[in-house]
Amino acid sequence: MMTEQFGDLHEDEVALRVLTQLDRWWPIARDVVPDSLELGGENPNLDLLRAVELLSDRGYLMYEALVISGGVPMFRDALITRSGIVALESLRSGRLL
Fold it and tell me: Which ranges in the chain belong to alpha helices (H)?
C-alpha cells in the first residue's frame, strides 16, 4: 500500500530533492529555484515546475507565488506541509529512499 501511495514520488528524483530540502529548511519558508536545489539535467526549470506541481497537487508543499523571470521559475516562500513531512517519513521508514 505504501508503494502505491508514494511509489511515483519515490521514482521522481527532483520531487524528492525538493521535498527533502524543504524538510531541512522547515519551519522557515524559502524561495525555491533550480540553483537552490543544485538541479542539473537537460531542463532544470521544467523539472522543477513538474516536481512542484506533483508535490503541490498532493498537498505536500505550499508556496506564496510562482514568479518566472528570464525563464527561471521561483517559488516564493515555499514550505513543506505536515502531509509532506509524513510522506517523507513514510518513504524513509519503508527504506524506499
Answer: 2-11, 13-25, 44-57, 82-93
